[in-house]
């Protein structure tokens, strides 16, 4: 009987130790997932990018219907409750949905489809990260390419301009957005989604 009791006591201790070990592993996995997902970290982001215009004090209310934005393309403001899924688009996308993505820390690169074609468009697509970025044509741009993030904008004429990569590095996932790290997927696919 003593042998049976010792065996039961030892089995209980082993069971308790195994349960605590499993709980520790679960906590470790949760911590790793939380700290390694979400918006990209900008550890090596440049401190400044020449030519960036700032537009402070953007509102960020969810609204229905269309919104009149200034500047165009928008850099923030009231927007749709539904975000635009980040990605590359071959058609114009709804401003109100794209602004919601900017609120989450995305960068929106727009281009004049009559000026940026062929090899230039292919080069521009290569500059766009696979997450927290949108590329789409936009009518009536002040330059061939305009990169926008929450409250900031950069006009350039050539996709090879190093300021584009610097802008993306600095503002993609930046804390200057109202909700950085919130999803950039699970919303609306705009017209002409390529990837």
The overall pLDDT average reads 89
Poorly predicted parts: 37-43
Percent range for helical residues?
25-40%
Biggest sheet record:
6 strands, mixed
Structure description:
The protein has 195 residues and is α/β, with parallel strands linked by helices. 33% of the residues lie in helices and 14% in strands. It has helices at residues 2-36, 95-103, 118-127, 162-171, and strands at residues 53-54, 62-63, 79-80, 87-88, 107-111, 133-137, 145-149, 152-156. Strand 7 and strand 8 (152-156) form a beta hairpin. The longest helix is centred in the N-terminal third of the chain and has 35 residues, at 2-36. The termini are far apart.
Features:
195 residues; alpha/beta; 6-stranded mixed beta sheet; two-stranded parallel ribbon; 4 helices
How would you concisely characterize the structure shown here?
With 195 residues, the protein is of the alpha/beta class.
Any chance you could write out the topology, listing elements then pairs?
Blueprint: H1 2-36, E1 53-54, E2 62-63, E3 79-80, E4 87-88, H2 95-103, E5 107-111, H3 118-127, E6 133-137, E7 145-149, E8 152-156, H4 162-171
Parallel strand pairs: 2-3, 4-6, 5-6
Antiparallel strand pairs: 1-8, 5-7, 7-8
């Amino acid at each position: 009987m003593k042998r049976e009791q010792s065996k039961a006591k030892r089995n209980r201790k082993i069971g308790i130790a195994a349960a605590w070990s499993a709980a520790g592993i679960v906590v470790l996995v949760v911590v790793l997932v939380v700290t390694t997902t979400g918006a990209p970290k900008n550890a090596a982001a440049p401190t400044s990018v020449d030519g960036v215009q700032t537009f402070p004090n953007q509102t960020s209310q969810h609204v229905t219907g269309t919104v009149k934005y200034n500047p165009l393309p928008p850099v923030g403001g009231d927007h749709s409750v539904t975000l635009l899924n980040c990605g590359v688009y071959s058609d114009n996308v709804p401003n109100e949905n794209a602004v919601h993505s900017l609120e989450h820390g995305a960068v929106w690169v727009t281009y004049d489809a009559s000026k940026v074609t062929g090899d230039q468009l292919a080069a521009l697509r290569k500059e766009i990260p696979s997450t927290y970025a949108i590329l789409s044509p936009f009518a009536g741009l002040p330059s061939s390419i305009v990169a926008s993030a929450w409250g900031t904008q950069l006009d350039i004429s050539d996709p090879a301009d190093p300021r584009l990569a610097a802008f993306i590095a600095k503002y993609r996932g930046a804390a200057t957005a109202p909700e950085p790290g919130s999803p950039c997927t699970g919303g609306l696919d705009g017209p002409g989604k390529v990837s």
